Amino acid sequence: MPTLTIEDVTVRFETKGRRPVTALDDIRLTVEDKAFSVIVGPSGCGKSTLLRLAAGLFDCTSGRLALDGETIRGPSADRGMVFQSYTLFPWLTVEKNVRFGLSLKGLPAERQKAVAAEMIAAVGLTGFEQAYPQHLSGGMMQRVALARALANGPKILLMDEPFGALDSQTRQLMQALLLDIWEKNHKTVLFITHDIDEAIFLGDVVHVMTARPGRIKKSIPIDIPRPRAMETLTSPEFMAVKREILALMHDEAVLADRSAAGG
Amino acid sequence: MALRDLLAPKSEIPAPVFLGLSLFAIATLFGGWCLLTYGHLVRPDFLAPPDAVALAGWKRLGNLSLLENIWASLSVIMTGFLLASVLAVPLGVLMGSFQAARALLEPITGFMRYLPVSALIPLLILWIGIGFEEKVTVIFLGTFFQQLILISDVSARVSKDLIDCSYTLGANRRQVVTRVLFPACMPGVMDNLRVTMGWAWTYLVVAELVAANSGLGYMILNAMRGLFTDVILLGVFTIGILGLMTDTLFKLLRRVLLPWSATF
Ligand SMILES: Nc1ncnc2c1ncn2[C@@H]1O[C@H](COP(=O)(O)OP(=O)(O)O)[C@@H](O)[C@H]1O
Ligand SMILES: [Mg+2]
Predict the structure, then answer these.
(1) Domain count along chain B
(2) If you placed Cys at B96, which of A62, A256, B152, B251 could pair as Cys (CB 3.0 to 4.6 Å)?
(3) Residue in B34, B57, B35, B36 with CA at minimum distance from that of residue B46
(4) How many angstroms is it from A64 CA to the middle of ligand 1?
(5) Domain that holds residue B89
(6) What is the CATH number of the domain that holds B245?
(7) In a mutational test of the pocket of ligand 1, which residue from A16, A19, A48 has the highest number of ligand atoms less than 8 Å from its CB?
(8) Does residue B3 sit within a domain?
(9) What are phi and psi of A45, to 5 degrees?
(10) Is residue B164 helix, strand or coil?
(11) Is A18 helix (H, G, I), strand (E, B) or coil?
C-alpha cells in the first residue's frame, strides 16, 4: 500500500514587488510504504518546500497530498521531521528532548522513559541522557533529533538534508547509522538531499528534481543490494547510477545557466 | 607575556593581568580624586575629599538614615521594575511572534520609548498625585516600553524551524507558545531584564525629583541645596554599588535558572 501520495502539486510564492516564484510545478509522486525514498536536486529547486508540504507546515497552491489516502491538513505527529538546522530544545536534556512528543500525548512517565531509553540506545547515545544540547556535537544533535522524531512512532519520517551541516566524516557515519536503524524498522522515509552520493547510498528509489520550476525529472530505482557499506560507494552499479544522475543534473544546470543568461 | 598579546582582538589574557588592569583603572580614578582634593586643586565645596564622603556615610549609617533612604529607593525601583517586567515579558514575547500583537503594540511603543519620562511628570502628578505610586510610575514608564521592544526582538529571533519542528512533534498552537516559544525566549529575556534593571536605576533621581522625603535621589537633591558635595557623592556611590549588586544578582539568577544556556 502506498503511503504518501503527492498529486499534481503546484506551489507559487507571491512576494510583493517581485515576480511570483513557481517553486513546485505539477509534482506527482508516490512514496511507497516501507521504502526509503530520496529526492535529490540542486539547491533552490523546491525540495524543502515539498517536504514542508508533506509535513503539513503550509498549503499548496493547487493539488493534494495524502497519507494513506487521507488528505494532509496541517502538521501531525504522524509525520515526523528532521531538519537541516539544529532544532533540539536547548532547555531540555537529551532524554527530555526525545520524550517531548510523548509528553504532549500525555503518555505515563514510565512509558515515556522506556521509549526514550530505547530510541537513545538506537542512535548510540546511551550515557548522554542528561546532557544538554549545548554540550553536544552537531552529529550528536542530529542523532537526538532523529531519536526524537522516531519516538513518536510516525507513519513516515521526513528528512530535510539532515546531515547537510555536518563534516564529511560525520556525515558518512550518520548515513550508516540511519541505514542501520532503517534496516531494523523499515520505516517509510522521504529523505531530501543535494548530495548525489548520499541519495544513491541511502535510497531504494531516487527522484531527481529540477529547478525553476521545480519538477520531478526522473525516478530511478536503486537496485544495489542491502545492507550497504562504504564499499558500495565504489561499486560499478553505484557508479552507473551516479553517472546517470549526474548527466540529468548537468543538462539541467546548463539549461538553468542559459535561461539565467538569457533572462 | 608580550604586549602584542594584549593588542590582539578577542584573544585571552592571563587572569592576573586582567585583574591588574581593572585595579589600575580604579586606582587611577581614586588617585585622581585624591590628587584634586588633597592637593587643593579644587575647593572642597566643589568636590569633597574621600575621607569626607566616608565620614558622611559613617554618620548616616549610624543614625540609620542611609539605610532608610536605600530602602525607600529600593522599594520604588523594585516595585516599578517588577510591574513593568511582569507585563513586558509576556506582551513582548507575543509581540515578537504574533503579527496582531505587533500591530496593536508597536505604534504606541515606538512613540513612548523615545519620550523623556521627565516630560510626563506634570501629568503624572495631576493624575496620580505625588506619593509612592507616582514614583513607581516613573520607573515603570522608563523601563516598560524599552523592555517590550527588546523582548519582542528576542521573540522574533526564535528560529522558525524550532517552531515548525514542534508542530511536527504533535504540538498544537497553545503548546508551541507555552512549551517552546516562551522557554526559547528565556535567556534573551533574562539578559534584557538585567540591562533594563540598570536603566531603572538611572531613573531614580527623576522619580524622586518631586515631593520626595526619603530615598537616595532625594538625599542627593537635598544635599545639592547646601552644596554638600560629600553627601552627593555618597548618594552617587551608593546608587552605583546597589546597581552593581542587582546586576550581579541577575547574572547569578540566570546561571541558576537557566543552566542550560551558555553564558559569556
Ligand atoms: N516562503 C517563501 N517565500 C518566497 N519564496 C520562497 C519561500 N520559500 C521558498 N521560496 C523559494 O522557492 C524556491 C525553492 O525553495 P526551497 O524549497 O527552500 O529549495 P531547496 O530546499 O531545494 O533548496 C526558492 O527559489 C526559494 O527562494
Ligand atoms: Mg532546502
Answers:
(1) 1
(2) B152
(3) B36
(4) 19
(5) 50-257
(6) 1.10.3720.10
(7) A48
(8) no
(9) -85, -5
(10) helix
(11) coil
Distances A127 to A38, A147, B209 between C-alpha atoms, Å: 32, 14, 60
The whole-angstrom separation of Cα B173 and Cα B163 is 10
Would you call B161 and A149 a contact, using CB atoms and an 8 Å cutoff? no
Tell me how many residue pairs between chain A and chain B have CB atoms under 8 A apart: 68
How many A from CA of A145 to the centre of ligand 2?
A: 17
CB distance A101–B262 less than 8 Å? no
Q: What percent of chain B has pLDDT over 90?
A: 78
pLDDT in tens, B118-152: 888 889 989 998 889 999 999 999 999 999 999 99
Closest by Cβ to A87, choosing from B161, B175, B261:
B161
Cβ distance A141 to A113 under 8 Å? no
Helices (H) and strands (E) in chain B, counts: 13, 0
The CA distance from B229 to B219, in Å, is 11
| Mutation choice for A interface testing from B160, B165, B256 by most A CBs within 10 A | B165
Domain annotation for chain A: domains and CATH numbers = 2-78+155-262 (3.40.50.300), 86-153 (no CATH)
Give the pLDDT confidence score for residue B116 in this predicted structure: 87
Candidates A48, A57, A97, A98, partner chain B, best to mutate (most B CBs within 10 A): A57
Residue B249 lies in a domain: yes
What are the distances in angstroms from CA B51 to CA B33, B35, B36, B226, B231?
11, 13, 13, 19, 12
Q: Which atom of ligand 1 is nearest to the CA of A194?
A: 22
User: Residue A196 has which C-alpha cell?
Assistant: 548525489
The ipTM, to two decimals, is 0.94
Cβ A80 under 6 angstroms from ligand 1: no
Q: How far apart are CA A185 and CA A180, in angstroms?
A: 9
Nearest-Cα residue of chain A relative to residue B181: A89
φ, ψ dihedrals at A69, nearest 5°: 85, -10
Enter the C-alpha cell of residue A143.
Answer: 542523532
Q: pLDDT at residue B85 above 50?
A: yes
* Alpha-carbon distances of B260 from A92, B93, B226, rounded to whole Å: 8, 20, 52
Residues A19-78 pLDDT 10s: 888 999 999 999 999 999 999 999 889 999 999 999 999 999 999 999 999 999 999 999
- B115 three-class SS: coil
pLDDT band at A261 (very low <50, low <70, confident <90, very high): low
